[in-house]
Amino acid sequence: MSRASEFRSGWPSLAAATLGVGLGVSGLAIYSAGLFVNDLGRELGLTATTYGLAFSLMTLGMAAAVPVVGYAVDRYGVKIPTFISALGLATGFVALGTIVHSVPAYLAAMAVMGFLGAGSGPISFTRAVSSWFDRARGLALGITMMGMGLAGAIVPVVTSSLIAVHGWQPAYLALAGAAVAGALPTLLFLREKPHRELTAAPASPAAGNHDAPAPAPSFAVIRRTRLFWQLIATFGLMSVAFTGLVPHLVPMLRESGMSAGGAASIAALLGIAVIVSRLVVGFLFDVLRPPVVAATLCAICTLGVLAFAFGGVALAPVAAIAVGCMLGAELDMLGFFTSRYFGLAAFGRAYAGPYTAFVVGGAIAPLWVGAVADQAGSYRPALVIVAVLTLVVTGSFLALPNPNVRLAEPDTSATPASSPQPVPAAIPADT
């Protein structure tokens, strides 16, 4: 099937997934949380420290739920877990706007919302989109994850306006309504491609048999492979390396002498880079060697961070664009590599491993960046550490096999029906 044919048949699920990601926990909860801090500080006595703890608890709640969501997606399909999680996310927002009247209650509500809303994140949507797209999978996943980028541009503006006009409690209720609205496209349009074999990586396009799949492995096979744990280590370290720069970006710029307006402009530039890179990187994954594309992005991020560390605010736009390119591709990469290496039969559980590592890394990263900056009295040492860690991630990506070609052919000789499933083509034979 051609790329154009994949878009003609798969666009309803692609559109539903893009909306669902934007109106799920990653789009609504993460991009709106900081907007309530001032009001909650006046009403509840929330401090910057307790807000940071609440954000970390929400992130860790998501991480704890991801393996459960992965199993549910593999067992029940994409609709049920996603819809239940959307309702859980909406319930969390309702609780924040109605029954939360103390800091401990706020911390508990954020943690529970992260746990209940985890299924409205990328897992289900990535699996559904991957079932419709093969040749254009990278681009399709990039479009899907644009939902989060668009949420990052729209949710803060709308939510802050609601807070200013109606107050913080009605704004939380409006977010609950948005979460429910995000579930409707899932119920109506999101589905996996019918009668499709859940496959592992395709053969090389040059071989002319892109639609001839290898047997998809079970999760029992996947979790014993070196490749699975390599993805966990790679994406976990990636998150620890550079995601902590995002909440610290404006403070870093201000420390360097930039005005508040200038810092906001640089932050906006980062957001634009995130949105653009999702499409560009997704397309490049379809036509080039994906590990090399990923490693190149890491190298660009390294150079951009070092440029800012030693060149000052004059090179801040370079750093913002470089970091934005990485942020715009991380979850696209994760979904692409997981689906190509391991197929879709156990996609939810296979995705859950590296995604959990990425989420936990995202909870750790802001803490260590802030701690290093406080200890050194400057952000420069933290930036140097970020550059070194990102360079290690570059090497880790280069060590990955090419997911767009078969790495080993399964044994096609006659075997008894009770014999173990052959190792799929997407998994190196020596694992």
Keywords:
431 residues; 18 helices; mainly alpha; single chain
Number of strands: 0
Spatial separation of the terminal alpha carbons: 31 Å
User: What is the global morphology?
Assistant: globular
What string, H for helix and E for strand, traces the elements in order? HHHHHHHHHHHHHHHHHH
In helices, the fraction of residues equals: over 70%
Tell me what portion of residues adopts beta-strand conformation.
under 5%
- Average pLDDT, all residues: 83
| Radius of gyration, CA atoms, in whole angstroms | 21 Å
Unreliable stretches: 197-213, 407-426
| Main beta sheet strand tally, sense and closure | none
With helices defined by DSSP (H or I, 4 residues minimum), what is the helix count? 18
Question: Which secondary-structure class do the elements indicate?
Answer: mainly alpha
